[in-house]
Amino acid sequence: MYLTIEETAEYLSLPESYIETLIQQNRIRYLFDGKAYLINKEQFNGHLDQLEKAKKQLEEWRNEPLPEDPDVKDED
Predict the structure, then answer these.
(1) Is the pTM of this model over 0.85?
(2) E strands within 1-76?
């Protein structure tokens, strides 16, 4: 499925100007049909999966209790 720049920006929650910059730098795959840039939606699946995995790891890290500091008990 192909998306326009506007649809891609909404799908990725990024500004349209950033998507345009990625196109100019050839960092994402696209087609130009003579009127508009069309961007293949499937190329972002891996990116979104990695983003979700990173969010999950960050949440687990935040919820992990801090170990007790051994120096706290060693006060005179």
Answers:
(1) no
(2) 2-3, 30-32, 37-40
| SS3 of residue 19 by DSSP | helix
Q: Which CATH class for the 2-63 domain?
A: alpha beta
Partners of 39 in the beta sheet? 3, 30
Identify whether the C-beta of residue 31 lies closer than 8 Å to the C-beta of residue 37. yes
Which pair of tokens denotes residue 68? Answer: 């007790």
2 burial via Cβ count (<10 Å: 0-12, 13-18, 19+): middle
CB 28 within 8 A of CB 39: yes
Domain extents in the chain = 2-63
State residue 57's pLDDT score.
94
d(CA 8, CA 22): 11
